[in-house]
Design a protein that fits this description.
Strand 32 and strand 33 form a beta hairpin. The chain has 492 residues and is mainly beta. It is elongated, with a radius of gyration of 29 Å. The protein contains 3 helices and 35 strands.
């Protein structure tokens, strides 16, 4: 399983019936409940006062807010366009970190200056409003300061769009707040999530979200996307308090910046070195240009499986895994004669740029070692592991791509290597004493000659990263911590 992260291109929290702009806040506070005081607005009436100022009155804000965001999908779109990834094979999860995730003392506490209580037992939804564009703006504050120096000396406050009423300086939303919560026809729900304690992180995923993102990757323009309490919470009335939940935004300037995580299975498990009867085996073909760059063929190749006596016994359908990597799947239950025996896989109709290339003939040996049956229990095999292609404490510029080889040394030997299809790796960073997982346990590629992983740093935030390795043998799981440490640094 491969993972790619797309970060937010912009975000903003809009507050019901208020023109306050909170675009660049490092945290979004989604709230519902008791009406909250809005900004002081000028009326010119001598009887009106607000914050000690004559001629102003206090606006009233309905009790909820909504978080809007846009996605930077340019790099992922280019990968799809270059044939390295098929958008139809991807699934997606939108992730945001809860600001209460690290401190249980914040549960059910009063967390804002106006007495808003931390929400618990609620549902959020990921929504879409078709059409329209919006600008982020530069505001920070949810409320104007209540002192003699606000707002004219408060440069962080802005009422410029986007806000509840306007999407840009000269354009209003089709519906204030982007949609009407009592009218399902004005919005679409892409995913929902229930929160028990209120300190859980957002992890929106659904078939509807997969369909939406995959359509964006093939050219569909982005709509307006956002996160809000489901309508039944926004429409609650008669509450004596407001309830809020906070999540880090793109301006948090920490590793907890929100992102869309995309998953696609590009794991190579080449069985050419250990092809067995009675199990599904994969045989691969790799295509590179003269510079060693993987390239895609014009069409899928044709494959013939040739027996040891020269007869074509199978014509499996070739499939593309990723750019420059093609494979076939075979499940052979019996062959004439005895094993081991030598077969050939002949790849033809190999077309690059309209030019047909010569056929490629490869060999593989068929064994019958898929299962071990007997009276003796198996004994785990423990290998020694080393990593190459990446130096300890190496500084890597964001955007580089590395092929990292993992070598497994056979026990009680000095240089005998083994190819293993049960090796996994994970990447993580540390924030204080907390390990933040970047890539969960993922299978390492196994080709005919090596075990390796591809390290794509284009989406990795500058930080210090740790690589762990896990190997499984006969029900024994061995984890090797911090096999390698490296740093991602900003491009100059």
């Amino acid at each position: 399983m491969s993972i790619y992260r797309s970060y937010f291109s912009k975000n903003n929290t809009i507050v019901a019936n208020s023109d306050v702009n909170t675009a660049k806040n490092p945290v979004t506070q989604l709230f519902y409940g008791k009406n909250r005081s809005g900004k002081c607005i000028y009326t010119g009436l001598s009887g009106d006062t607000c914050s000690g100022r004559s001629g102003f009155t206090q606006s009233v804000v309905n009790g909820y807010s909504r978080f809007l965001f846009g996605l930077d999908l340019d790099d992922l779109t280019s990968k799809v366009g270059s044939c390295c990834i098929s958008s139809g094979d991807m699934t997606h999860t939108l992730k945001m970190t809860n600001t209460s995730n690290f401190d249980d003392a914040l549960l059910n506490e009063f967390i804002l200056i106006d007495g808003t209580r931390r929400a618990t037992s609620f549902d959020l939804m990921l929504f879409k409003v078709s059409g329209g564009t919006w600008d982020e703006g530069v505001g920070y504050d949810y409320q104007l300061p209540r002192d003699m120096f606000g707002p004219e000396f408060d440069l962080t406050h802005s009422t410029r769009p986007s806000n509840w009423f306007s999407s840009t300086t000269i354009t209003a939303w089709g519906n204030s707040g982007t949609y009407i919560n009592s009218s399902p026809a004005t919005y679409s729900v892409l995913a929902t999530q229930s929160f028990d304690n209120g300190n859980e992180n957002i992890e929106f995923s659904s078939p509807a979200l997969d369909t939406e993102i995959n359509s964006l990757l093939t050219g569909t323009p982005q709509s307006t996307y956002g996160i809000a309490f489901i309508p039944s919470f926004e429409n609650l009335s008669g509450l004596t308090q407001a309830y809020s939940v906070g999540f880090f935004t793109k301006y948090t300037q920490t590793f907890y910046e929100p992102f869309l995580e995309s998953y696609y299975d590009h794991t190579i498990n080449d069985n050419r070195s250990n092809f067995n009867l009675h199990k599904t085996n994969r045989l691969f073909l790799y295509v590179y240009d003269y510079n060693g760059k993987p390239i895609c063929l014009d069409v899928l190749p044709v494959v013939n499986i040739i027996s040891c006596d020269g007869l074509t016994v199978l014509t499996p359908i070739a499939k593309k895994l990723t750019c420059g990597v093609y494979y076939i799947e075979l499940n052979i239950t019996s062959i004439p004669g005895t094993v081991p025996t030598l077969y050939e896989d002949v790849w033809s109709n190999i077309s690059i740029g309209g030019v047909i290339q010569p056929d490629m003939t490869n060999e593989f040996v068929i064994y019958d070692n898929a299962y071990s049956i007997g009276s003796t229990a198996g004994v785990p095999t423990i290998y020694g592991y080393s990593v190459s292609g990446l130096k300890e404490n190496e500084k890597i510029t964001s955007g580089e791509s590395r092929k990292v080889f993992i070598s497994a040394r056979v026990p009680y030997t000095t240089d005998e290597q083994a190819l293993i299809d049960t090796i996994q790796y994970r990447l993580y960073v540390t924030q204080g004493t907390t390990q933040v997982e970047v890539t969960p346990w993922t299978a390492v590629n196994k080709t005919f000659t090596s075990n390796y992983l591809l390290l794509d740093t284009s989406w990795m935030i500058p930080n210090e990263y740790y690589l762990d390795i896990k190997a499984t043998s006969n029900e024994q799981v061995d984890i090797y911590r911090k096999v390698i440490t490296f740093q991602i640094v900003n491009q100059l």
